[in-house]
Amino acid sequence: MGEVIESGTLDGIASTTVKKLHKAGLVTLESIAVTPPREIVALTGMGAETAIKVNRLARFKVDPGFVSASELLEIRKHMMRCSTGSKELNRIMGGGIETGAITELIGEFGSGKTQICYTLSVLAQRPAEEGGFGGRVCVIDTEGTFLPERVVQIAESLGYDSNEILQNILVARAYNSEHQIVLIKNLPQICQEHDVKLVIVDSMIGHFRGEYIGRASLAERQQKLAGCLGNLLRVSEAFNLSVVLTNQVQSKPDVSYGDPNKPTGGHVMAHACTHRVFLRKGRANTRLVRVIDSPYLPEEKIRVAITEAGIVDAEE
Ligand code: GTP
Ligand code: MG
User: Fold this and answer.
1) Residue nearest to atom 3 of ligand 1 (CA)
2) What is the pTM of this model?
């Protein structure tokens, strides 16, 4: 996907440079635009100045900075939405999860974050006419909780070929935050090669919280997190795909003021995510869902249910 560069696509760039980019798998404008010059140097062996120039030209071609509002509208027309499995949840999300945006699922353990991820990794593969993205799914699993058996169960309950569904989900286990950062940096190539339309990171913050302990390391942690989130947002825009992250709430029973169910990741997380979806346990298999801090979605609370077929509407 995206425009494949040839010599001549980027003004003033030698054909030998273009060959080096191709050899490193950087064949489209989008992938060059989202790869930092430092990495272009590491991947291709070209000089830093050339890498900076190549990256800047590609970025300008992909996104010339200011665009007219009518162009913006045109871009938004290409935005796609994927069903979550629940009509009610789709409704409060404006039709489903969006491409070109980061959607954050927030909730305590067992609130259904991973269950929504499973459901989306099946539904995103359906063609657009059936409420999907018609593309592949890439999962970065930081907790080792992604079970293919559950995907099979959901796919088969919905009447889909589970082998085909499994084939089209690429799973990477991130063992620590540095590994997670590397996997996220490699996304442009993966997304380009495999026509990925949904990227899931479950969970986004787990490793960071576990590794950076104490006030002294907080700034460094937040900086790394911001870098990761920036990469994810660029990938979502450059490839018109949807990014879904999960985030636990930190319970602070010791504080007597404020909300004890605060999402982790602080302002960095709050600002990077386009839509924040808050999940809370309800009766039996039901979950209460609310969209918080959205630029244009209403803050309405609805109920969904977790079933064999994944996330569905809760019965009244
Ligand atoms: P953490 O990852 O621990 O933060 O939690 P989470 O929010 O990811 O929770 P998850 O999505 O894993 O939800 C777990 C809940 O889903 C369990 O408590 C079960 O109630 C429910 N669940 C999991 N599998 C099934 C299933 O096959 N059928 C049904 N009906 N419910 C399921
Ligand atoms: Mg989970």
Assistant:
1) 109
2) 0.81
